[in-house]
Amino acid sequence: MRSPVLLFSFPMILQGQSALITGSGRGIGRAIALLFAKQGASVFLCARSHDQLASTAAEISDRGGQVTFATADITREDDCRRIVDSARETFGPVTILVNNAGHYGPVVPVEEYPLADFDEVIAVHLRAAFLLTQLVLPEMYDHEHGAILNISSLSAKSAFSWGSAYAAAKAGMLGLTRVTAAEAARKGVRVNAICPGPVTETIMSQELGATLAKKIGVSSEEQLAGFLQSILQGRGQTADEIAHAALFLCSNASSAMTGQSINVDGGAAFF
Ligand SMILES: NC(=O)c1ccc[n+]([C@@H]2O[C@H](COP(=O)([O-])OP(=O)(O)OC[C@H]3O[C@@H](n4cnc5c(N)ncnc54)[C@H](OP(=O)(O)O)[C@@H]3O)[C@@H](O)[C@H]2O)c1
Fold first, then answer.
1. Which residue ranges does the chain devote to CATH 3.40.50.720?
2. N or C of the chain: less Cβ packing under 10 Å?
3. Whose CA is nearest to atom 25 of ligand 1?
């Protein structure tokens, strides 16, 4: 007689997939890398900080996952080309691309925002997502298989002061998601986005909270509590919660979804 355990055991849902995840040394990218590797994907990590990448990679390989990494600054075209080539050489064609890397940039009004910073914030979020998408798509089309996930933000759908480049980049990523999805839909490739709310455990979120608190003259705790009040669930999200939404959008569980942006924000944006 067959064991009932076997009847209910499921294969790992990303078995055989090769995922390139940007900004995967810490924060949300790290959580996505850990979960994707746990679900059978070979994961290629990249960011600028070697030690954080090495630590995430060690955590994955200690658990039996397939992982490698390379330092890269994805605002540089050459670095983007190098990581895609390197991922391909290590694990074969990239079948999943997660455009996650980023930083918030200056917290200043539009009229004071330095142009060089504006360009840099657009470059790390939007331009790099565009470039990496360009680099992986032809091979995805050849195999009629692939998933691209853009990590956007609640900022793409809200109106928070003092983050113009960030909001513009994140809203731009939603446009990029829809247009790429339209071009790719009949070629076996799906393209989606996630808009996280405040993921309060990450460095980016904590630094932003501290800066905002200072600007408005309250403590970091008061600033955060005020912001969380505006969210239906009254709390921030965890990196792991974002990673589970990412797993859904990059797996066959979401096979009929493309061109979408999913809000993983505890109930903050409603379109
Ligand atoms: N935390 C939130 O509340 C929140 C909310 C909505 C959306 N998001 C988005 O989620 C994504 C991840 O953010 P997080 O909160 O996890 O932030 P984080 O902990 O600061 O992680 C950001 C990652 O991006 C990498 N990165 C930054 N600039 C890079 C560059 N030029 N080239 C390569 N890698 C770069 C960082 O590594 P290095 O510094 O070592 O390069 C790091 O691994 C971002 O796109 C962010 O906008 C975050």
1. 13-197+238-260
2. N
3. 23
Contacts of 21 (CB under 8 A, 6+ apart): 29, 32, 33, 36, 43, 44, 45, 46, 98, 100
Q: Which residues contact 51 (CB under 8 A, 6 or more apart)?
A: 25
Question: From the alpha carbon of 154, which atom of ligand 1 is closest?
Answer: 6
**Which segments within 3-113 are labelled E, that is strand?**
18-22, 42-47, 66-71, 96-99
Taking the C-alpha atoms of residue 68 and residue 61, their distance in angstroms, rounded to an integer, is: 9
The pLDDT tens digits for 103-128 are 999 999 999 999 999 999 999 999 99
Active site residue ranges? 166
Global pTM? 0.97
Order of strands, sheet of 146-151, starting from the edge strand that comes earlier in the sequence: 66-71, 42-47, 18-22, 96-99, 146-151, 189-196, 261-264
**Ligand 1 mean position, distance from CA 104 (Å):** 8
The CA distance from 91 to 88, in Å, is 5
**Is residue 170 packed enough to be buried (19+ CB in 10 Å), middle (13-18) or exposed (0-12)?**
buried
Return the CATH superfamily for domain 13-197+238-260. NAD(P)-binding Rossmann-like Domain (3.40.50.720)
Q: Is residue 237 within 8 Å of residue 191, measured between CB atoms?
A: no
pLDDT at 47: 98
